[in-house]
Amino acid sequence: MSEQSVTRATFNEVMLPNYAPLEMIPVRAQGSHVWDQAGREYIDFSGGIAVNCLGHCHPDLVAAIQEQSQKLWHVSNIWTNEPALELAQRLVNATFADKVFFCNSGAEANEAALKLARRYAVDNYGEDKDQIIAFKQSFHGRTLFTVTAGGQTSYSDGFGPKPGAIDHAIYNDLESLEALISDKTCAVIMEPMLGEGGVTPATKAFIEGVRALCDKYNALLIFDEVQTGFGRTGYLYMYQAYGVVPDILSTAKSLGGGFPIGGILTTDEIGKHLKFGTHGTTYGGNPLACAVANAAFDIINTDAVLSGIEQREQMFREHLQGINDKYQVFSEIRGQGLLLGAVVNEAHQGQAREFMAAAMEQGLMCLVAGADVVRFAPALVIDPQDIAEGFARFEKAVARVVAAD
Fold first, then answer.
1. Among 248, 280, 300, where does a domain finish?
2. Which residues form the signal peptide (predicted)?
């Protein structure tokens, strides 16, 4: 089947309608450049929603998957494998963790984290300690458990009974958490920076306060670093920026540089409660995914790359500020590292998707985070020339939206 034998119309014919993809179909990419079926070129500021941390088809990742593909693809969890052990060792050495569990996605990682927290509480305190507290506007995945923990009922309503004992506090509002937490709380799950919920970082006081309340009530603190992790904010994981250590951390997206992989990190004391037979996954930790993740780790976890993220963040902020000085469309630029959100002002309320669509017309791929935030999550090693050209295109898009009003 040739690439031209299918079109966007094919999606409507053969795919379930839970997505509404844009008209353009990417067929080839290199670095931060993408080409569609017609051969038109785009600059990618979306990063596959914070997944393609090294851009598209990075030569080291291509080499890793080619090499591993000729050795071993899959053995299941009845056996372990060298790439998985090497990746786990790297993660343990670079973080607070003693133990790692691998799966295939962020949702699976958060599912495992929540199950582990519940099991830890049952084993240590009894079945009455089962409350999980999450935050409104948060996002933790699409399984029934994780979508219920996520603080957006539009994603969780309409599927019948939801898992119980899950409550939601207000993000960056410690008093709202204090009103809910008690000795019945087994875990608090939070993103150090809301991703889907608007690219809103936690304040240092808030995240320190959450840690203190968890300690007070013997509740585990779970950091969902699916979107913020693996270099995205200029640290290997964002908890390191705050100096606040979680009990369990979920990771995915950038971890595989574009190849599906997820996992949780935790301590020996907590991890021992996920004993033999309590949880599993057929594909998790497969050699192909772990080989690619090892190659990505070798590049990401270096001073050169991590320090370069802060420099690129400043470039993004300067370009966005320059555009805003001219067109007055954003009320705030927020976020950290290369996960940034441009919040539209009152005059353009609800128009984030229009800015994204206009950007596509100008040859720039970006994202939204709700109706009022244009989100940027490019490759962590994006070339400064691509940043400049991408924002030249974005400025034309902004001009088009403003002119149409």
1. 300
2. none
Core vs surface per residue 303-335: b (16+ CB within 10 A) or e: eebbebbeebbeebeebbeebbeeeebbbebbb
Whether residues 192 and 225 fall in one domain: yes
Number of residues assigned to the chain:
405
Residues comprising the binding site for N(2)-acetyl-L-ornithine? 142, 281
| Alpha carbon distance 248, 294 (integer Å) | 21
Q: In the chain, what is the straight-line distance between the N-terminal and C-terminal CA atoms, in Å?
A: 43
Residue 158 and residue 252 in one domain:
yes
The CATH number of residue 113's host domain is 3.40.640.10
Label residue 98 by pLDDT band (50, 70, 90): very high
Annotated binding site: 106-107, 139, 142, 224-227, 281-282
pLDDT tens-digit readout, 109-131: 999 999 999 999 999 999 999 99
Binding residues for pyridoxal 5'-phosphate are: 106-107, 139, 224-227, 282
**Tokens standing for 346?**
């009152």
